[in-house]
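Side project, low priority. Logging it here so it doesn't get lost.
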Amino acid sequence: MSQPNATDSRLLTEAVTRLRRSLRASIRTDYPWETLPMAQVELLQVLAEHSPARVGDLATRQRLAVSTVSGLIGQMINAGLVARAVDPADRRASVVTLTEQGGEQLAAWTRAHERRLESALGSLDEPDRAAVRAALPALFRVAEFLEDRGSA
């Protein structure tokens, strides 16, 4: 197997950055009601998979400072997206859970992004769509590698 070169890494970085920026901009244009900052969306995504969770665990998982996550959680509580409760495993600690409203907001956000990507993928010819489909497993493996390295 050949080794990746710096150009591969640079191009992948550029593609991911542009895709993320384009998605963020297009969602605000097409769905002006969508005002959730990405940091809050990412916390909602984690809570959808791992709820309830302690703020410290969320901070570790997102690789953010506890104070940053605590501030975001405070904003999200005020918006009704998450709730804080006593940790049943340790009554001295608290946990955060996704509320019904938070789940609905996350589902709407996800659907809006999927529609945007469906439209973008639909603009490609079949060979390009096939190339994107073929690349997905490798992209997931790259993400897993990076996640594993971050937790090591």
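Brief comment: The first strand starts at residue 82 and ends at 87.
Revisit when time allows.
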